[in-house]
Amino acid sequence: MTSRSVWMPAELAAYVDQRSTAPDPVQQQLIERTTDMGGISVMQIGPNQGAFLEVLIGAMAPRLCIEIGTFTGYSSLAIARALGPDGKLICCDISEEWTAVAREHWEAAGVSDKIDLRIGPALETVRSLRDTTVDFAFIDADKTGYIDYYEELVPRLSTNGVIAVDNTLWDGKVVDANDTTDDTVALRAFNDHVLADPRTICALTPIGDGLTLIRKK
User: Fold this and answer.
1) Contact assessment for residue 12 and residue 4, using Cβ atoms and an 8 Å cutoff
2) Which SS3 state, helix, strand or coil, does residue 60 take?
3) How many percent of the chain have pLDDT more than 90?
4) Shortest CA distance to 76 belongs to which of 96, 59, 57?
5) Given CA atoms 204, 111, 106, 69 in this order, what sign does their dihedral have?
6) Verdict on whether the full-model pTM lies above 0.90
């Protein structure tokens, strides 16, 4: 699988991937299945990002997680594997086709009972939670919707809740002033929006394609 850290020298990127816990057989099968789908496979997070999510979730021990953008399920599989016996994950996506692949691998990994997949616009799903408290959220969906997802999630975060947001470096394009495509502009706006928010503290980390971690103050 190609490293998501494209700005990193290839040798160093390979070293990083090789020194993170390797995918297990179910995860490896999911990587291969997604790769066979062609160009859209770049939407799958990298194995080291999956390992990072497992470490983070295992340390946090959240009871309710929500994922916005499930695709073929690698990130949700990582999150669900690390959940405790009372932990649940709500997955939001609009594709029955892609999430069918996810369901197959959740079942194979024995975590399907921890996951509640909801097909439909993610904003509607989050808004339907009303007074529900969320302990962890992972955003990896349409980039132009990031600010809206963030604004819906922050008021629902528990005291020590965390939001993790993928692709916030966008192959390094966020610092390319000549790139004015919609997704790049949206990600720059999101990064600035989070940094300026007095309610939260954030850290943009160079994990994968950029992973921003956000916690309420």
Assistant:
1) no
2) helix
3) 91
4) 57
5) negative
6) yes
Nearest to 118 by CA among 141, 91, 87: 91
Pairing of strands 64-68, 134-139: parallel
Residues 134, 138, 143, 144, Cα dihedral to 10°: 0
Beta strand ranges found along 37-177 (DSSP E)? 64-68, 88-93, 115-119, 134-139, 157-166
Q: Tokens for 109?
A: 């990994």
> What average pLDDT does range 49-78 have in this prediction?
97
Confidence at 17, pLDDT banded by 50, 70, 90: confident
Helix ranges (DSSP H) in 111-176: 122-128, 146-153
**DSSP-assigned letter for residue 21:** P
Please write the tens of the pLDDT for every residue from 141-200.
999 999 999 999 999 999 999 999 999 999 999 999 999 999 999 999 999 999 999 999
Burial letters 31-48, b for 16+ CB under 10 A, else e: bebbeeeeeebebbbbbb
For every residue of 192-205, DSSP letters joined together read: HHHHH-TTEEEEEE
| pLDDT of 4 higher than 70 | no
For the chain, the straight-line distance linking the first and the last C-alpha, in angstroms and rounded, comes to 37
The structure tokens listed for 60 are: 């946090």
Distance CA 60, CA 99 (A): 26
